[in-house]
Specification:
211 residues; alpha/beta; Rossmann fold; Arc Repressor Mutant, subunit A; six-stranded parallel sheet; two-stranded antiparallel sheet; 11 helices; elongated
């Protein structure tokens, strides 16, 4: 796996390079400190993944990823950050980044994330999920608020299934699924399906946090 490191701090880049060197299947093929440098590297190097800092000095790592995607850059993106800001995370997820990892993560976690990404999957740091979905409701209170059928719907949302897929799996109509989804969102005070999926994962209602 060929990896590009994008971070404006030399020590961070060196630390990342040292961690990645622990896996012989990973090779760092370039380093960049700014968005423009990173874009040039992405277009010149045959990189599989770009590890991008969320904050590149006064630049935004997410803006960089958005620009790279608009230019049809072939590599995937893993955001590395010390921020647990909900909007940053949700924006990154909507954009289709392959990974989102906190800088406080263990080296093994970063390597695991890259392994999953190399297999076409995604990885979102459990620490981010827990923080983003740290609602006022305890896990036990979920069953008090939702009916058994709504709990089923929430679990399937956590797995990323569409209304049609849920309907087929639970042997109910899409209209019924849509109605249950609306009730789940209202009862748990969640804004959309993405929040519901993150909530289900953060509360342990599904067994995995990767796709």
């Amino acid at each position: 796996m060929n990896v590009i490191l994008v971070d404006d701090h030399p020590l961070v880049r060196k630390g990342l390079a040292a961690i990645l060197s622990l896996d012989r299947a990973i090779q760092v093929v370039g380093e960049a400190t700014t968005g423009s440098e990173a874009l040039r590297l992405m277009e010149q190097q045959n990189a599989d993944v770009a590890i991008v800092d969320l904050r590149l000095g006064e630049e935004s790592g997410l803006d960089l990823v958005e620009t790279a995607m608009s230019r049809k850059v072939s590599c995937k993106f893993l955001i590395l950050t010390s921020s647990t800001d909900e909007e940053d995370f949700l924006r990154a997820k909507r954009m289709g980044v392959a990974g989102y990892v906190l800088k406080e993560a263990l080296p093994e976690e970063l390597l695991h994330a890259l392994l999953l990404i190399s297999k076409g999957r995604t990885y979102f740091d459990q620490g981010v999920l827990d923080f983003v979905m740290n609602t006022r409701k305890s896990p036990d209170s979920i069953t008090d608020q939702l009916t058994p059928k709504e709990m089923e719907i929430l679990k399937e949302l956590g797995k990323g299934l569409s209304n049609r897929e849920i309907a087929k799996k639970l042997f109910i109509t899409e209209y019924t699924v849509k109605k249950h989804v609306s009730q789940v969102l209202a009862k748990l005070e969640l804004t959309d399906r993405t929040h519901a999926a993150l909530y289900a994962n953060a509360k342990g209602l599904v067994r995995y946090v990767v796709n």
